[in-house]
């Protein structure tokens, strides 16, 4: 695929990370700040799929676009905050999560991204990326956004927020999904 692809988001952190990767293809990334209706659903896949349907059907968006929906799934909290990650970040935040986990030894978690691609006339394709890691005992670092200060990806010593954009982009849930998208687009 050549030409412009739009990312529908209100999160500038996501734009930077995805743009950095799409630059390898000849694809220019634009952004659109449409209201994305997040349906109450059990999985990120459903949130992305129904959200895209809404944008296409109700809002009449007829451009090639992607929508990234991500979430942090903490094992000892049975996958919480998961699909509620945005709400939880905006309410209790990282301090609230650390408080909930006080005294918990099992701090393993998975960060997941589901990226939906809509190409007019071709429907929706979904690309998934996940990375295992651990929740820290305290917040560390100032880069990135959201849960980055409390998440250390497997094999690393730093939290995502202690990494530069280039370091976080070497491997992450979002980059794993983006690489699958890139692979798909290069065959389009
Ligand atoms: P959109 O406009 O793209 O929907 P959002 O920030 O609401 O932006 P999500 O619903 O995908 O995005 O994200 C759920 C929450 O998880 C939200 O609070 C994000 O800040 C956070 N989050 C997503 N990706 C993250 C990442 O790579 N590192 C840290 N936090 C992340």
The residue fraction in helices comes out at 25-40%
- Report on the biggest sheet: 6 strands, mixed
CATH topology: Maf protein
Strand ordering within the main sheet: 2-1-3-4-5-6
- Quickly count the domains: 1
Weakly predicted, low-confidence segments: none
In whole angstroms, how far apart are the ends?
Answer: 5 Å
What letter string, H or E per element, gives the SSE order? Answer: EHEHEHHEEEHH
Under the CATH scheme, the architecture is Alpha-Beta Complex
Number of strands: 6
Detailed description of the structure:
- There is one protein chain.
- This protein is an alpha/beta fold and 188 residues long.
- It has one domain: Alpha-Beta Complex (Maf protein), CATH 3.90.950.
- It is built from six helices and six strands, in the order βαβαβααβββαα.
- A six-stranded mixed sheet has the order 2-1-3-4-5-6, sandwiched between helices.
- Strand 4 and strand 5 form a beta hairpin.
- Helix 1 crosses helix 6.
- It starts with a strand and ends with a helix.
- The model has no long low-confidence stretch (mean pLDDT 93).
- The site of inosine 5'-triphosphate has 19 residues, from strand 3 and helix 3.
- Inosine 5'-triphosphate (ITT) binds next to strand 3 and helix 3.
Q: What's the SSE blueprint?
A:
Blueprint (H helix, E strand, L loop, with lengths): L2 E6 L3 H11 L4 E6 L11 H14 L7 E10 L10 H7 L1 H8 L7 E12 L3 E13 L15 E3 L11 H6 L2 H15 L1
Parallel strand pairs: 1-2, 1-3
Antiparallel strand pairs: 3-4, 4-5, 5-6
Helix pairs in contact: 1-6
The chain binds inosine 5'-triphosphate.
């Amino acid at each position: 695929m050549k030409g412009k692809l739009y990312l529908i988001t209100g999160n500038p952190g996501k734009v930077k990370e995805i743009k950095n990767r799409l630059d390898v293809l000849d694809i220019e990334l634009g952004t659109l700040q449409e209201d994305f209706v997040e349906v109450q659903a059990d999985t990120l896949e459903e949130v992305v799929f129904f959200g895209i349907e809404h944008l296409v059907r109700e809002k009449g968006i007829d451009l090639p676009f992607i929508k990234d929906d991500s979430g942090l799934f903490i094992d000892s909290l049975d996958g919480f905050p998961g699909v509620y990650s945005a709400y939880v970040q905006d309410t209790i935040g990282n301090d609230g999560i650390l408080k909930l986990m006080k005294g918990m030894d099992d701090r393993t978690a998975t960060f997941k991204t589901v990226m939906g691609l809509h190409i007019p006339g071709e429907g929706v394709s979904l690309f998934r990326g996940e990375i295992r890691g651990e929740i820290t005992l305290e917040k560390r670092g100032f880069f990135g956004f959201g849960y980055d200060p409390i998440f250390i990806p497997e094999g690393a010593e730093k939290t995502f927020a202690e990494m530069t954009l280039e370091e976080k982009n070497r491997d992450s849930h979002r980059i794993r999904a983006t690489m699958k998208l890139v692979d798909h687009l290069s065959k389009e």
